[in-house]
Amino acid sequence: MRDDNLLADCRARLAFDLLANTWNAVALWALRHGLRRPHELLDLIGGISPKILTETLRRLEYNGLVSRRSYAESPPRVEYQLTALGRTLLGPIEAFGAWAFDHGDEVMAAQERADHPAAGADIP
After folding, report:
1. Partners of 66 in the beta sheet?
2. Which of 3, 57, 88, 94 sits at a 20 to 30 Å CA gap from 65?
3. How far apart are CA 23 and CA 52, in angstroms?
């Protein structure tokens, strides 16, 4: 693909949209070791509500990245796992995480300068 086609390519935008939602990448990463039940995912993922987790898992299932297995038990039991397609995103997610670890302080410093421009006036 040529660089100038990137902006017009719906497939590229689809891929960016999949990773743009914070919870998509977090949920995929939380599922990297295998089957998980929703309550396990809630325990693993800090700051996500049950409603948002359900919406995220449905979105990932809709996009073919996660599979859902339900059991006819009482109480009902549901498990989620990555599909083969979902596993292909683990590498890019890990790369983004490594980038954030390496450059997160720089980004936060830039945000701080933007939020408080007078405080950084003496800093070149």
Report:
1. 82
2. 3
3. 8
